[in-house]
Amino acid sequence: MYENFIDSFSPPMINGESLRSVKVTKSLGVFLDSSLTMERQISSVVSTGFFHLRNIKKLCPILPHDSLATLMHAFISSRIDYCNALYAGLPLKLIHCLQLIQNSAARVVKNVSRFDHITPVLLELHWLPVQWRITFKVLVLVFKALNGLGPDYLQHLLTPYVLARPLRSLHGLLLKVPMMRTKVGERSFSFYAATSWNALPINVRTSPSLSTFKSSLKTFLFHVAFNVS
Q: Where exactly are the structural domains of the chain?
């Protein structure tokens, strides 16, 4: 009886090999923890980002504005944006950690004090805040999936919303939002993608091409993020 009890807790096997449980693993350069909090990944991005930022800041006296902006995109923004769709729905305190890097990079590029308000700086640089960059990435994936430009498994996670009395102007353009009982569930692609997609103006959702969609989407998110007309 005791042996049967022990066997019931034996680790899973694949091809005769036992699978070892770990709290954090790394896949394609992204740290994934057992609860998918993404805290380890964000901590890594923040640490690496500020390391590169300190080195870039040393070059400020000898590099022009355009060159500094290029370095920021290459070493800072690219890391913030890498696989950032995984950050969708995370607590704002974690997103704020990433925002601090972008804010610091913007201040270095524009040579402004850390005491100056950051919104006008980001606005002048035309940099979307981190939260909206995440939404941008997710919605681009949605557009690709709905238009046959993305992988099939993403398309299968999206269900068109069928109205009881279909209206021509909305037919086939909205997505069904799945019911979720937990905050973790609301971080799923099917939920976050559907709610974000449905919030877009119809002229953005009906963009004729991917390039047009990206341009219209960035303009829309820019207006929402900075409350500008």
A: 22-127, 133-226
Q: Rounded to a whole number, what is the largest CA-CA distance in the chain? A: 75
User: What would the two tokens of residue 205 be?
Assistant: 């959702």
Integer Rg of the chain from CA: 22
CA–CA dist 129, 3 (Å, integer):
56
Closest listed residue to residue 86, CA positions, set 193, 168, 222:
193
CA distance 126 to 104: 15
Q: How far apart are CA 122 and CA 175, in angstroms?
A: 32
CA pseudo-torsion sign 222, 72, 137, 183: negative
* Parallel, antiparallel or unpaired: strands 30-33 and 24-27: antiparallel
Q: What span, in angstroms and rounded, lies between the C-alpha atoms of 158 and 146?
A: 8
- Beta bridge partner(s), residue 13: 18
Global pTM value? 0.86
d(CA 125, CA 93): 24
Nearest to 142 by CA among 203, 221, 210, 219: 210
53-95 pLDDT, tens per residue?
A: 999 999 988 988 889 999 999 999 999 999 999 999 999 999 9
